[in-house]
Design brief:
Layout lengths: L13 H15 L19 E8 L5 E2 L2 E2 H15 L2 E13 L4 H18 L2 E10 L7 E11 L15 E4 L5 H10 L16 H10 L5 E4 L4 H13 L2 E5 L7 H10 L12 E5 L1 H13 L7 E7 L5 E4 L5 E3 L13
Parallel strand pairs: 4-5, 9-12
Antiparallel strand pairs: 1-6, 2-3, 4-6, 7-10, 7-11, 8-10, 9-11, 12-13
C-alpha cells in the first residue's frame, strides 16, 4: 500500500481492490460482508428500523474517539432510539486525495471495534476518492437496519403531560471536546467526548419497561434542541430543574468563559427519555448500572404549556430556555 490516498484508489482498478482488501475487508470481515453489489441478509422481524447518517466532523480525530467511531455510534444509536436492535450497517467513504493510509486504517479499526461492541455487522459499502481540497479529509455515511423489539413504540410525538424527562448523562461534552480540539480560543480543559454506542443501554431499559414514550439521541443541537423538537411533535411543554441537569465541571467552565449554553452543545453518547413518573425511578436504576449512563438524572417533566421549555432555578426564578439561532459550532458530527 502507498503512504497516501491517491485518485487511483477511487478509480475502480487494482489500487481500489488493494484499498478494500488491505483495510476495509481486513477490519470489517464477517459472515455477511460481501464483495458483491449488495449484501443478502436475513431479517425475521415483521418490523424494522432503517436509518442513514452522514459524518463530516473536523478534526476527524478527537479526545474520546474519531470520525469512524462516531459514524458507527451515530447510526446504532438512531436505530436504538426507535426500540430496535441494530443488525447490519453499510458505510460509504469519501476520502480526500492525500489522506494518510495509516490514518484511514486507524479509522477503520475504530469502526470495527465499535461495531463489535454494539453487536452489529458492517456488511457492504462504497469508497470514493475526491480531489485535493474537495473534501476535508474524510466524510463517512453509514446506513443501518435493526429489528424493533416486540411491544415497543417510541416517537417524539408520544410525549404525555406528566412524563418524567431523563438524560442519560452529563450534557455537552462532545461539542465542547470538538471546540477545544480546534484550539481557536487558547483554552485548555480536560474534556473527553461522550461518543459511545447506546443500543445495549436502550435494550436494558426496554427489558425493564416498555412503557417508554420517547427516546431521542441528543446529537447536533444538543439536549435543548431535542426538547424543543419534542414539544413541537407532541404539542406539549417542558419544565426543567436547572440544578438537576448534569454538566461536567470542565464543560461548565468552558461554557462560562465563552457564553455557551451546555444544553445546546452536541452529545454523541446521551439520550433524552420521556416516560411516566411511575417507571422513571426504575429506569434510572437501570441506567446507573450501565457503563455509559452512570450519572443519568431526571431533569424535569412534561407540562401542558405547548411549545415552552421553562427552566426553574434554585433561587426560585423561572426563565424560558431560549431557542438557538444560526450555527453554534460547525462540523461537530
Amino acid at each position: 500500500m502507498e503512504e497516501f490516498i491517491t485518485l487511483s484508489h477511487g478509480a475502480g482498478g487494482r489500487q481500489t481492490a488493494d484499498l478494500i482488501g488491505n483495510i476495509f475487508k481486513k477490519h470489517f470481515a464477517n459472515k455477511d460482508f460481501t464483495p458483491d453489489d449488495a449484501a443478502v441478509l436475513d431479517l425475521e422481524s415483521k418490523k424494522i428500523a432503517f436509518s442513514t447518517d452522514g459524518f463530516i466532523v473536523s478534526p476527524w480525530q478527537f479526545a474520546g474517539g474519531n470520525i469512524g467511531k462516531l459514524s458507527i455510534c451515530g447510526t446504532v444509536n438512531d436505530l436504538a432510539c426507535m426500540g430496535a436492535k441494530p443488525k447490519y450497517l453499510t458505510c460509504a467513504m469519501v476520502i480526500e486525495e492525500g489522506f494518510k493510509v495509516t490514518d484511514l486504517e486507524a479509522i477503520a479499526a475504530s469502526m470495527a471495534a465499535t461495531a463489535a461492541e454494539a453487536g452489529v455487522n458492517i456488511v457492504a459499502g462504497d469508497t470514493k476518492v475526491a480531489g485535493k481540497g474537495q473534501v476535508d479529509g474524510i466524510f463517512i455515511t453509514t446506513t443501518g437496519v435493526g429489528e424493533i423489539m416486540d411491544g415497543v413504540r417510541t416517537s417524539g410525538a408520544l410525549a404525555q403531560v406528566g412524563d418524567a424527562v431523563i438524560v442519560t448523562g452529563d450534557v455537552g461534552r462532545h461539542g465542547c471536546t470538538i471546540l477545544l480540539e480546534r484550539d481557536e480560543f487558547g483554552i485548555e480543559a480536560d474534556v473527553t467526548s461522550d461518543c459511545a454506542p447506546l443500543n445495549q443501554t436502550v435494550e436494558a431499559l426496554l427489558l425493564e419497561s416498555k412503557d417508554i414514550h420517547v427516546i431521542r439521541d441528543a446529537t447536533r443541537g444538543g439536549v435543548g434542541t431535542v426538547l424543543y423538537e419534542i414539544c413541537d411533535q407532541s404539542q406539549v411543554g417542558i419544565k426543567l430543574n436547572s440544578e438537576a441537569i448534569p454538566v461536567d465541571d470542565a464543560v461548565k467552565g468552558v461554557c462560562g468563559m465563552l457564553g455557551l449554553e451546555p444544553l445546546y452543545l452536541a452529545c454523541e453518547g446521551r439520550l433524552v427519555i420521556f416516560a411516566p413518573q411511575s417507571v422513571a425511578g426504575k429506569l434510572l436504576e437501570v441506567l446507573h448500572r450501565m457503563p455509559y449512563s452512570q450519572n443519568a438524572a431526571i431533569i424535569g417533566e412534561v407540562t401542558s404549556e405547548i411549545g415552552k421549555v421553562i427552566v426553574e432555578h434554585s433561587f426560585g426564578g423561572k426563565t424560558i430556555l431560549p431557542q438557538p439561532t444560526g450555527e453554534l459550532l460547525p462540523r461537530i458530527c
